[in-house]
Amino acid sequence: MAVRTRIVAGAVAALAAGAFAALVPGPASAASLVECESETGYWDCYLPSGLSSQRWYYDGVLLPGANDHSSAGGTCTPGTSHSVRVTFSGGRSSTNFTCQ
């Protein structure tokens, strides 16, 4: 009987710990440094002033013409969703946008 009581008590403690962990927020995700805009089938993404990219990726595809620039852009089909990722000295950042 004592073994069963310890098992039940252990299970209750584990459930309580899990519930507590669910209530405590994890580390906040960093805001994206990449800002994107879209209008009439064209998109433009840029880094804040002072940062220069090393590589831009649009939907996972490298955009070699945009390398070492603070912005990248192109055409898109309105209503489609896209992801943009950029690497720069000191890190990388990404965001998603819907073409307008």
From TrEMBL:
Signal sequence, start to end: 1-30
Alphabetic keyword roster: Signal
Designated name of the protein: Ig-like domain-containing protein
